[in-house]
Amino acid sequence: METRQIGRPVTRNEDPRLLTGRALFVDDVELPGLLHAAFLRSPHARARILSIDTAAAKARAGVVAVITAEDLGDYWQPGPLLVPPPPIKGMTFRQRCQVPLAKGEVRHVGEPVVMVVAESRYVAEDAVGDIEVEYEALPPVIALEAALSPESPRVHADLPDNIAAEVRQTKGDYAAARAKAAHIIRRRFTYDRGASNPMETRGIVADWDHKAEKLTVWDTTQAPVFIRNGLAAMLGLSERQVRVVAPFIGGGFGPKMMMFYPEEVLVPWIALRLDRPVKWIEDRLEHFCATTQERSQIHEAELALDGAGKILGVRDAFLMDTGAYNPYGLTVPLNSQCTLLNCYDVPAYDSTFRAIYTNRTLVTPYRGAGRQHGIFVMERLLDAAARELGLDRAEIRRRNLIPASAFPYHNEVIYQDFAPLTYDSGNYAPILDKALDAIGHAGFAAEKAAARAEGRHLGLGIVCYVEGTGIGPYEGARVRVQASGKVTMATGVGTQGQGHFTAFAQVVAEQLGVDVRDVEVTTGDTDVFDWGAGTFASRGAVVTGSAAHGAAVEVRAKILRTAAEHFECAEADLVVEGGAVSLAGVPEKRITLGALAGLANPMRGAVKPGTVPGLEATSYFGPQMGATAAGAHAMVIEVDPRTMQIRVLRYVVVHDCGTVLNPLILAGQVQGGVAQGIGNAFFEQLAWTEDGQLLNASLADYLLPTALDVPRMDVLHTETPSPLNPLGTKGAGEGGAIPVGALYAQAIEDALDLPARGIEIAEIPLSPSRLWEICNPSA
Amino acid sequence: MKPAPFDWHAPDSVAEALALKAQHGEAARFLAGGQSLVPAMNFRVSQPAVLVDLNRVGLEAIEAGTDGSLTIGAMARYVAIERHAGAAGSHPILTEALREVAHPQIRNRGTLGGNLSHADPASEMPAVMLALNARLRLRSARGMREVAAADFFVGPLTTALAADEMLEAIHLPALPARTGTAWLEIARRRGDYAMMGVAAVISRDAAGRCIGARIACCSAGPTPMAAPLAAAALVGTMLSDADLDAAAEAVRKEVAPTGSVQASPAYQRHLAGVIAQRALLMARERAA
Amino acid sequence: MTRPLQVTIRINGSDYTREVEPRLLLSDFIRHEAGLTGTHVGCEHGVCGACTIRLDGAPVRSCLVFAVQAQGHDVRTVESLGEPGSLSVLQQAFRDAHGLQCGYCTPGILMTVSAFLEENADPSEEAVRHALSGNLCRCTGYQGIVDAVLLAARRMRGA
User: Fold this and answer.
1) Could you give the 3-state DSSP secondary structure of residue A432?
2) What is the ipTM metric for this complex?
3) How far apart (Å, rounded) are the C-alpha atoms in residues A560 and A555?
4) CATH architecture of C5-80
5) Among B172, B195, B229, where does a domain finish?
6) Pick from A25, A667, A706: CB nearest C104
7) B interface residues, C as partner, C-beta within 8 Å
8) Which CATH architecture has domain C89-157?
């Protein structure tokens, strides 16, 4: 290759627009005659709707429509099952998907009951206040274990109990492993809920052009193609008649996937009916109850080890809160179940989970998507085992790492990608060593003792993780050289800050020998490209990147073929570089890509049989299975033992995601992931009352970490290419967030010498207040 | 989240503002910096029919008295107080505590008078006012009266202001010579409402004996909470470490925290003792 | 519906005259009346900082000011800083240091930082983090933002 673009820290193509306020976000869409929607939402976690009186709202000046479930007629349908569960033998799965507007019963606070459309959002909110709904409050299902009791109320009255799913997966023979174990470590762990809180909330604008008979929808979705196809089907339109645009999106993190949220299906419907454009922008209060969340799980786990600290097997049973509906199937609990095995050689595994319906907001994947729970359980078990065996924390991990010679490594249990979990490639020991070295593990005991002599409490944490990434089904890309010489690349995924306009441009530029700035990337516009799945599961770089690579390779071949004909030479004699093709050693024999594109678009008389015009190619890539990235995080903290305030003194990430496309963007992904992990570990916890009310539904009370709460971190890499794609890359979007809870728990225990006091940390999120309670159980 | 409708008046004088408030009574709210009221209105928790906007009436002056006292107009913005050289000299605890109030973007707009009238028991300034023994000047069309800070805060978000009355100015008496002050708080994040905050004011005589002490806490009960027993216990002592420890323990017992999403009442009470001890240490050093 | 008022607000040097309800937030006026959509709205309760603008030079939350209150005052938004083809020193530093990902919080951060750097030519990292603590970013973990501010300060000093 003449010029390497892959691997360079190229600054981003998208930044100038974003930095100057010129980038289009959904709420920036303004249309003549635009109407605004607002929703009346349930104030109860569970209640029967006795009556709805919308007369006053309808009478208010400026109100155009007031819609209840009854008004929807046949359009009232439960949403689609977005991700059907993989076929696992013996499993139970009971699907109940969310409805556009509640009918008869409300099942969580914030569930939409009435939609109002008015001339302004202000008036729409006024009208929401005019609506009278009579509810009969019912006892809600909130706590997971109580939800299993036969006396518990049921979230869905037509189901025999609150169990949404039950799945058991095994590998090897755990009973036999346990029987020969020298040590059994048994613990209970809890992991509580958080909210994704992208800085941009959700939003949707729908515009029906009755002359063109075309619906255009601007949507804060991570998966515009799914939404286009789904909306066309629901609305009885052809796919050609629906264009979904996911413009710049202000952060996604999972909950903006192809959710078919109630608002997402109602706003296009009402725009069609009214023949006027309609906008709905979620406010922050709505976001806290109406956008999906993640994380409540309770694990009862057991680790069997031999006398040398080698893992013989793991048994785990966990409950998972799936909220009031489960449109996303089993993705989150399967991730927990599979990721628990982590980077270790675990010969026997017996894991059962039950997903539980509760009267809380829906649970769907949010950055990490269940992986952090599994890592938390395994890493905590290993910490306890290390103490019991008198081993160093790092040593017990090292003894159990899957050796580099063992890849591909088969974990056998079925993963969210429907395939038996197989780690494609990896080399874990160097990751651990690098992290230990960078954090100063060898000298830490002395450092800790010296600090303690001054009355300061330092603690070190070191944890390992894996990150399943780059799953299917597939993505596509179309690459074209324009007559101007500039290159376009289009794909179906949406973009929410991952640097797609740059990383994909690098992949294309590398093949076509053009400047990265001359590759114009389009994402998230179904009129430009409408095959693919979306941006989630750390798959963009792997799957779309590989598709872009494939398309660029084909275009390169066309360039060479066309140029060889033009110069009447062999392709091998050509050099593609600097936006032109030249004959090696004969620089005056040079033609620009733009001119070649002209030759490839033949005029009358120049067309031969079989001619396909254009320097253009479309390529698709579907991996046979997901690629598994890995890493280790280490940190040194100082804890004030009286106030339980924590200061992070050093933070190290060592990450292996195969081939690095752009180290600048990769570092940003990792750092941002760690910041969300820190939020999850020590700042962010949704606080619910027993009757299902959220107590901290604002950014003043739900604490996103600030610039003072996230430390500077060293991000280091190892590179073990994946054999599953032509770039050798693996995803990196979620890795930063995954191990942080386990890391905090371990470092805090270390700083406060908690195990010596008989105290262990078995829960996330933590807070100073909670930590003080844990350390002072009698207070 | 958009506010409910209201009528807006932006009078040019205090007299006009008071007349409007008298006319509309409880239906009207004064709008000062708006950094607490507008969020409440955006959430529609607060839906006043009339807003009397004070941003054009003046009342922004900050005057340092020759005796070391300080008089602050109710509409003085935090940023102006924070940057006022006289205030930093005469009442350094004010500057110290102001730096913990939210963030610069809020302090550029928020006012001391608005904050005190809002009377959030988790807010820093009411506690500082108690510790500084502030006198608050209240005015209505009926006339002017002055109340001590201790009498101004009567409950959560509730003050001694009558429906037709506004806070006009805050008077901070001079601190005696050899007085040390300190504000210390623990919040979850910088700029958040504190889980516990302590204002400590200690005066010593030439021999180093404590001749006066005032302690007040935020997030410690339904109003800003003074700790008079703890303060009284310090007077007459030489302010040894043990004296401060005893006072801090007394603070821990005197506060009545109610808990929040971020902190249990027991943890808050524990923090009160820890922070009081640290704040008293700082104040003692500064009283030298 | 309360009595609409005519208001003229100067934004980035241009006057915008509109009839508005008193309750219209300044953030909505800037975005939807003046059409300057670079100012973003993230929470409408004054915490996230995305809507930060400069009012008479001072960074404030535009979601906590009513548009009618801005009559006679000078408003500056992100659109005043630079153009895509000619980024300001501050904007260029954000690009060079990867100080943004989704870019939603970025305009508010730029308005906060532009004021901060006018008063702090050579800030420490700690001071920069304090200055940024009133603006939430969910993507970057702040490291790129902190580096961008330090880089911009260095370039502005000519160092």
Assistant:
1) helix
2) 0.98
3) 9
4) Roll (3.10)
5) B172
6) A25
7) 1-8, 10, 34-35, 38-39, 41-43, 51, 53, 55, 79, 102-106, 108-109, 189-191
8) Orthogonal Bundle (1.10)
